[in-house]
Write a structure and sequence with these properties.
The chain is of the alpha+beta class and 530 residues long. The protein is 53% helix and 16% strand. It has three domains: 196 residues, Multidrug efflux transporter AcrB transmembrane fold, CATH 1.20.1640; 76 residues, Alpha-Beta Plaits (2-Layer Sandwich), CATH 3.30.70; 224 residues, Gyrase A, domain 2, CATH 3.30.1360. The protein is built from 16 helices and 17 strands. A hairpin with a 3-residue loop joins β3 and β4. α1 packs antiparallel against α13, α14 runs antiparallel to α15 and α15 packs antiparallel against α16.
């Protein structure tokens, strides 16, 4: 019975694993679970987006400011991971900047909005009709007394001579609701209030004005409804809200996107995406209390001061579940759920620089990298054959397998191939034959000493192995240091180099020796082609 060979088994595993992970690169129409294992390309090869962000921690305490950058990086990474970008590069630059690289992304605007979005979630009660009228009337009065601070509103009033005369005649009169310059932009509806499409931009600008916010009566807040994706020119809902937050994003446990049933009678949900939310234990208790105490009142779901929906509370709601409905696209709903799940940014961020790397540039880089690798491979192969004859040819075969092994392992580990990674492969091509050179030179010395080809080969591998381990181990340590302290492309180079070292050691010590014994040392040969 033939003796079991660990060497043979390891080579079979080596070849099978390499072939398994490289197959999707060459064979189309593989099963989905297999075809998904594809080599990922970095920003410099695939194209994509690079954003330089600056964190504004000026309003934070010294201790919070120190943690703000790291916490924002974590939140941004969580958002991008859920967005589905393969192998993003997110790194800290200095004391207050973050570099984000998103390879292969095509929806640049959505990605940048997702990174910057704050998504302050609040549940607030809609003011009663009586309170809403009083608030709008009070705002009208305050605006009339401070009309010079609002050029856009004053310009609007100039178009109505009667209104302008009333404003100019006295700055102390309290205007009745419906007769003032601000209330002229808001009309009553069956469900509450709305702003005409032509006035939406003006009202948004006014609501965002810090001076105007100070004119709103204490305890209340004015807000616009969500933009209607189905009818872009539709009037926007307008709300008078209680400024008190009944629940906040801190009470949220999980948010996910769902598609409403086509049989639903709610046109905001029927066959459309919406967001279902599960609340934490304390949040569920708060939600049950606020719904139980305010039956027949409207509870607004407010996100970044925009009302997404304001359903009427019909009954006490227990169980800690809620929904955010609106005219969502699938992408909008998905992005909003991501932001809700990852939490708010600790400190606001702003983009300093945004660069789009085109796919053409990436394609040119790939072609150049392939050409450089191919030239290096051919030159090394020619040298090995010329100098070590048939043994050199076997080393060249192992070299090809080593390059294939590197690509296979990058695929298996989900790593990303970048230009520095290609440089690592090219460097590995030169280094991988170094171990074979040490072995072959040692075998030549043993042959000169009068030993048989098999004895010389055994002695050569045995004595050169220690030197090979020492030299490759020091390079592996250097790669580990580069990976640990480096960022982005440097890490890509380190990963490729480390995999190449492991592969080259296996190919030199195990694979080439196995081929030598099978091809060159069969029988009782008196000579060795080396």
């Amino acid at each position: 019975m033939k003796k079991f060979s660990w060497r043979g088994l390891s080579i079979v595993i080596f070849i099978c694993v390499t072939a398994f992970y490289l197959a999707p690169l060459a064979i189309p129409n593989l099963p989905t679970w297999w075809a998904s294992k594809k080599l990922k390309l970095g920003l410099d090869l695939r194209g994509g987006m690079q954003i330089l962000l600056e964190v504004d921690s000026s309003k934070l305490s010294a201790e919070d400011a120190r943690n703000a950058l790291d916490q924002n990086i974590k939140i941004i990474r969580d958002r991008i991971d859920q967005f589905g970008v393969a192998e993003p590069v997110i790194q800290k630059l200095g004391e207050n900047r973050i570099m984000v690289q998103l390879p292969g992304i095509s929806n640049f605007e959505a990605a940048e909005k997702l990174i910057r979005q704050t998504a302050m979630l609040d549940f607030k009660l809609v003011a009663t009709d009586e309170n809403a009228k009083q608030v709008i009337s009070a705002v009208d009065s305050a605006v009339s007394q401070n009309i010079s601070r609002f050029p856009e509103l004053y310009k609007l009033a100039q178009k109505d001579k009667a209104m302008l005369a009333k404003l100019d005649s006295t700055k102390t009169d309290t205007l009745n609701q419906g007769s003032g310059v601000f209330s002229s932009l808001v009309r009553s509806t069956e469900a509450g209030y709305a702003v005409q499409y032509d006035s939406v931009d003006l009202v948004q600008n006014v609501l965002a004005d810090s001076t105007f916010k100070m004119l709103v009566p204490m305890g209340f807040q004015l807000a616009m409804g969500k933009y209607n994706m189905d009818d872009p020119k539709a009037d926007r809902d307008f709300y008078v809200l209680s400024s008190k937050s009944e629940l906040s994003g801190a009470d949220l446990a999980k948010a996910k996107v769902e598609i409403g049933s086509s049989a639903s009678t709610d046109i905001k949900v029927a066959n459309k995406p919406y967001i279902s939310m599960d609340l934490k234990r304390d949040g569920a208790k708060k939600f049950e209390a606020v719904t139980g105490d305010n039956i027949q009142r409207r509870l607004a779901i407010v996100m970044d001061d925009v009302v997404y929906s304001a359903p009427v509370i019909q009954d006490r709601i227990a169980g800690g579940s809620a929904q955010i409905t609106g005219s969502f696209t699938q992408q909008e709903a998905s992005d909003l759920a991501i932001v809700l799940n990852t939490g708010n940014l600790v400190a606001p961020i702003k983009p300093i620089n945004t660069e789009i790397v085109g796919a053409t540039l990436g394609a040119d880089s790939i072609v150049s990298g392939k050409l450089a690798g191919l030239i290096g491979l051919i030159l090394v192969a020619i040298f090995m054959i010329f100098y070590y004859k048939f043994s050199g040819l076997l080393a060249d075969v192992a070299l090809v397998f080593n390059v294939a092994f590197i690509l296979a392992m990058l695929t298996a580990f989900g790593a990303t191939l970048t230009l520095p990674g290609i440089a690592g492969i090219i460097l590995t091509i030169g280094m991988s034959v170094d171990a074979n050179v040490l072995i072959f030179e040692r075998v030549r010395e043993e042959l000169k000493a009068g030993k048989s080809p098999r004895s010389a080969t055994d002695a050569g591998y045995q004595r050169a192995a220690i030197t090979i381990w020492d030299s490759q181990l020091t390079t592996l340590i250097a790669a580990a240091v580069l990976y640990n302290f480096g960022t982005g492309p440097i890490r890509g180079f380190a990963v490729t180099l480390a995999i190449g070292i492991v592969g080259s050691m296996f190919c030199a010590i195990v694979f080439v020796r196995w081929m030598s014994e099978a091809v060159l040392l069969g029988g009782n040969k008196k000579t060795l082609s080396i």
